Amino acid sequence: MVVVKGLADVGVGVVGCSMRAGIELGGTKTVVAIGTAEGVVEEEWRFPTTTGEETMAAAIGWLRERGVVEKIGVGAFGPLGVNRGRGSYGCLLDTPKAGWAGFSIVGALGDAFPGAGVEIETDVNAAVLAEARLGAARGLEDVVYITIGTGIGAGILSGGRLVHGGLHPEFGHLKVPRMEGDGFVGLCPFHGDCLEGMASGPAIAARWGMPGHELGVDHAGWETEAWYLAHGVLALLAIVSPKRVIIGGGVSQAEGFHAKTEALLGKLAAGYFPNLLETPYVVPPALGQQAGIVGALML
Ligand code: ZN
To answer: Ligand 1 centroid to 36 CA: how many Å?
Structure first.
């Protein structure tokens, strides 16, 4: 590893020598790594996410042992302040996760590494960046990365830029048409039957009495799941016009899920969006578990 102690204020001439760190903060696990702007992970450490203070202290301690950090990219769960210049920038907003509401990730990193450049994004935005540069949407500038797990979220790359809006996209809370004959009430505490309420991992478990990975490949549950996701993707297609949609997260690993969703999307699109819906359109991630940390390094 290149030793960079003492180079912190030397400037752009030594960019190649600066130590770059990435942190992926997930609801259950955290990954901290050092590596390159191209997304090469040189060394990483995974550990369980606890409170904001404990988790960040652990990550900072690990990085300090490795030298002087000059650039830090963070991909974090949300809701998260991602707009610079606002008081909430770099802070977790109102989250039920214990010890995180109001916690400033950027503040903790700024105190630990004064002068280091810190960039923070949602975990899904970090993942879409990594997949667009190195993974399943390599070379494309208009890409969406959807994750289906405990919740549903999406990171949007549009014209090569990560989309924020006033907060950041909350794709999971999109209202989707109910599948005919579907009497499930939905699990979202705010909206009941929004996309997340109808199709997240916990929704599948509540609906069918078993988690997604236990449903057989031919279980009717996958038709239901593809129905809701295809409607969600149709909305993305109509609004942000992605060239490819990546669906990751635990639930998406079921065999044939992407093809099923893409086929249904084709029917729903009904011949519209002629230059967009080119196969393969709905695809699994290529970087798997690494997308988040690779994207964080790239930030
Ligand atoms: Zn909702």
So the answer is: 37
